[in-house]
Automatic annotation (TrEMBL):
<feature type="domain" description="Roadblock/LAMTOR2">
    <location>
        <begin position="16"/>
        <end position="109"/>
    </location>
</feature>
<feature type="compositionally biased region" description="Low complexity">
    <location>
        <begin position="140"/>
        <end position="190"/>
    </location>
</feature>
<protein>
    <submittedName>
        <fullName>Roadblock/LC7 domain-containing protein</fullName>
    </submittedName>
</protein>
<dbReference type="InterPro" id="IPR004942">
    <property type="entry name" value="Roadblock/LAMTOR2_dom"/>
</dbReference>
<feature type="region of interest" description="Disordered">
    <location>
        <begin position="137"/>
        <end position="190"/>
    </location>
</feature>
<dbReference type="Pfam" id="PF03259">
    <property type="entry name" value="Robl_LC7"/>
</dbReference>
Length: 190
């Protein structure tokens, strides 16, 4: 069997099996796909849908979702701005979940799917698929950084100027804790 050029080389049988189990647990799913940060398909079970197109669009939607969470201040300090995205169309849902550090799980579901069940199973499957992807991929934060090779420099006026100093790091203001309420009964409570 020849390798499909549109399927990412990191595809693992475990991912494909997880997609099959997911579709068995949520019968209203009409498709499932795992894509990498480069928009290539890692695993797919999307009958009647071009997986390459869906993977590419999913990557774009993930990047847009990250920008939205950053703009709205809804990300977290670790940089994990994207967790999930749900789109409801006229004929059903497209749900996208983070799967590890870089991959994304996309689920297609009928309009009658219980959304709570979709989220529950999608999050679980995303975590399991993320473990498979992350176990294979090196952590970018731990990757050795090579020193850049400098080209021979030409003497210019720009090089003779001192480098601009970076300003102080911008401090974040601490959030004030919410006022706590006690569960005391008033005279009108029974």
């Amino acid at each position: 069997m020849a390798a499909d050029p549109d399927i990412h080389p990191d595809t693992q049988p475990g991912m494909q099996e997880e997609l099959r189990r997911l579709r068995a647990r949520v019968p209203q799913l009409t498709g499932a796909l795992v894509s990498g940060p480069d928009g290539l398909v890692l695993a797919q079970d999307t009958p009647g849908i071009a997986p390459e197109n869906l993977a590419s669009l999913t990557t774009s939607a993930r990047e847009l979702a990250v920008r939205i969470t950053e703009a709205a201040g809804q990300g977290d300090d670790r940089g994990d701005q994207f967790r999930e995205l749900l789109v409801r169309g006229g004929h059903g849902y497209v749900a996208t979940y983070a799967a590890g550090r870089t991959a994304v799980l996309t689920l297609l579901a009928e309009d009658r799917v219980p959304v709570g069940r979709l989220h529950l199973e999608g999050r679980r499957a995303g975590a399991r698929i993320g473990e498979l992807v992350d176990a294979r991929a090196p952590d970018p934060a731990e990757a050795p950084v090579e020193a850049p090779v400098e080209a021979p420099a030409k003497a210019t006026a720009k090089q003779s100027r001192p480098a601009a100093k970076a300003g102080p790091a911008r401090a974040r203001t601490a959030r004030t804790p919410r006022a706590t309420t006690t569960n005391t009964r008033s005279t009108t409570d029974s």
